[in-house]
Amino acid sequence: MPTTPAQAANRPKPKVPYMQNNFMDLPKPVVPRVENRKLLKGQKAIVTGASSGIGRSIALALGHAGADICINYVAGEDKAKAMVDELRGHGHTAFSFRADVSNENDVAKMFEAVRDEFGTVDILINNAGLQSDASFDEMTLAQWNRVIGVNLTGQFLCAREAVREFKRRGVRPEISCAAGKIICVSSVHEVIPWAGHVNYAASKGGVMLMMKSIAQEVAPYRIRVNSIAPGAIRTPINMQAWDTPAHYRELLKLIPYKRIGEPEEIGRAAVWLASDESDYVQGTTLFVDGGMTLYPGFETGG
Ligand code: NAD
User: Fold this and answer.
1) Would the CB of 235 count as within 6 Å of ligand 1?
2) Which of 55, 168, 189, 278 lies 20 to 30 Å from 19, alpha-carbon distance?
3) Residue 53, Cβ neighbours under 10 Å: how many?
4) For the segment 74-122, what is each residue's pLDDT rounded down to a tens digit?
5) Residue 197: which residues within 8 A CB-CB, separation 6 or more?
6) Ligand 1 pocket residue status of 237, Cβ below 6 Å
7) Looking at 200, 221, 257, 280, which residue is catalytic?
């Protein structure tokens, strides 16, 4: 028999301690420390948008795992150079290259430069992305095109160059089981609709099916294509969600694990997805989101 609204209202609710207490009374978040292994020794990687936030952490993590890195940036040459110095300071090999990922010519030149410098490319991290928010009826075509241009077309252009290079070169078993790996940095908004950010959610939803379709097409060439979908990660792109205790408290309502994610956690996921440890993982999205996609509104039973 269906539950009546009155019965539903009387149904016992799961006990969720933070509903009574302050979020800050919960166990103090501990961000894990993990052993550094050279899972990507001898591999050559391009990380787009690598001079800040998640891209920066991915570049560092890949470097620590033994890969040589091209730091792609579109603006802020000083930050990109600082990033290269930091990698070199750790004994890693790196150089920076300016390219707008939404520009076909720039992307072709970047891959040419990486082939000149490193000989080939084994790993592409499609990370560059941006937001340009507006309520839907006020969103300009320029805002729509810019976000789709960088977040979706940019990932297409870089992935296409990478697949061309992977097919040309093929598998080198001493380096990796795969001819190449592409990791698209997507977002929980590839599945969660986002009012006020229609262009962004559309771009990430597009990345999801682009990634899966490329993965299906190139799998027989031993090319692996996957995504990482971060939840709320502490970077400049979403600073307004964590810059004050009040904002942070609001944010935690959306995260069952009750802490924000750190960029290093995306770096670790990227190392694993790019390594042979995940060799049988193809065309999937790894959500790194503290449970944000678990419908947190239902934590108390709905
Ligand atoms: P960020 O702003 O620090 O990094 C984005 C980087 O992309 C910047 O370095 C920027 O200069 C670069 N970029 C922008 N346009 C570019 C272009 N045309 N060509 C080359 N580079 C360009 O923000 P972030 O949080 O590190 O974002 C990285 C990726 O992670 C984005 O794709 C974003 O959508 C995604 N993401 C972030 C979060 C989060 O909570 N921070 C959550 C989900 C997804």
Assistant:
1) yes
2) 189
3) 21
4) 999 999 999 999 999 999 999 999 999 999 999 999 999 999 999 999 9
5) 131, 133, 189
6) yes
7) 200
How many angstroms separate the Cα of 154 from the Cα of each of 99, 103, 166, 222, 288? Answer: 10, 7, 18, 23, 22
- Among 186, 168, 158, 185, smallest CA distance to 70 is for 158
Q: Which residue's CA is the nearest one to ligand 1's atom 6?
A: 49
For the question of residue 295 being annotated catalytic, the response is: no
Count of CB atoms situated within 10 Å of the CB of 120: 16
Q: What is the mean pLDDT of residues 65-74?
A: 98
From the list 86, 84, 103, 104, the residue with the least C-alpha distance to 94 is: 84
Domains and CATH numbers, the chain: 37-298 (3.40.50.720)
CA distance 198 to 189: 10
Q: In angstroms, how far is the first alpha carbon of the chain from the final one?
A: 19
